[in-house]
Amino acid sequence: MAKKHGKRYTALAEKIERGREYPPTEAAKLIKDTSQAKFDTTVELHLRMGVDPKHADQMVRGAAVLPNGTGKKVRVIAFAQGDKARDAQAAGADAVGAEDLAKRIEGGWLDFDVAIATPDLMGQVGRLGRVLGPRGLMPNPKSGTVTFDVAKAVRDAKGGRVEFRTDKTGVIHTVVGKSSFTQEQILGNLATLMDAVNRARPIGVKGTYIRAAHLTSTQGPSVKLELGATNELAGQARS
After folding, report:
1. In sequence order, what are the residues at sequence separation of 6 or more whose Cβ sits closer than 8 angstroms to the Cβ of residue 147?
2. What is the pLDDT of residues 72-88, one digit of tens each?
3. Which of 124, 159, 194 is a domain's end point?
4. Which CATH number covers residue 52?
5. Does residue 138 belong to any structural domain of this protein?
6. Beta 42-49 vs 171-178: how paired, if at all?
7. What percent of the chain has pLDDT over 90?
8. Domain limits at 112?
9. Residue 239 has what pLDDT?
10. pLDDT tens, residue by residue, 3-51
11. Directed axis angle between helix 150-159 and helix 83-90, to 10°?
């Protein structure tokens, strides 16, 4: 049974031409125009990928540091000790520790958004897999959250670092920013994300890599992106 939308959603959706693919600039404007909730809604990018997620060599996974941030305050913890712990604290980590931090989490504390760990402490962090894994909080080398450069990892996480990966249906869902952002800020973040996704293309993927792309905001209608123009935008991403 199709989901029934309210009058507000229907009125907003009428601003978007069904089936049309929009250039990124127009799409960013439409997302702002159709985001009229009573709060600062989150703008998301949804990519339908031409991959088979059942095959490990076709899993798309990566991260990007958005030049304009996510618009959200990110709480970061770091598993580190000695000089690395001091580096993490200086970079702004909300909690830093080793065995003590692991025990705190085992006791039920999960008041954070990102966990970072130095490689030498992954033995202690590993036992938290059942708690952190299902919540997407487990530090991982592929996403840059297992590193000796904890200061950079903390700054990146605080400054707008987002992770992305294909779900079991082959779709990537990730954050672009907030509807209060300017069009330029949304486009800048979109360019960086698309560039990161393109760079994360697995060797085993043949044929069309990205099949469809949509921008949407919380409680708002989605806008289909014109892939050619969106990939051109990715080429302009800041290094």
Report:
1. 116, 118, 119, 141, 153
2. 889 999 999 999 999 99
3. 159
4. 3.30.190.20
5. yes
6. antiparallel
7. 67
8. 76-159
9. 45
10. 566 666 666 667 788 889 999 999 999 999 888 777 889 999 999 999 9
11. 20
pLDDT, residue 6, reads 62
Local structure of residue 198 (DSSP, 8 states): H
pLDDT for the residue 13: 67
Alpha-carbon distance of 139 to 116, in angstroms, equals 6
Q: How many residues in the chain?
A: 239
Copy the structure tokens of residue 3. Answer: 């989901």
Q: Is residue 239 part of a domain?
A: no
The first and second tokens of residue 36, run together, are 């009229």
Phi-psi map region of 165: left, alpha, beta (phi>0 left; psi -120 to 50 alpha): beta
Beta-sheet pairing, 95-97 with 76-79:
parallel
Distance CA 8, CA 108 (A): 40
Residue 73: its H or E element: none
Domain boundary among 159, 184, 208: 159
Instruction: Judge whether residue 2 has pLDDT over 50.
Output: no
Of 173, 172, 229, 174, the closest CA to residue 202 belongs to 172
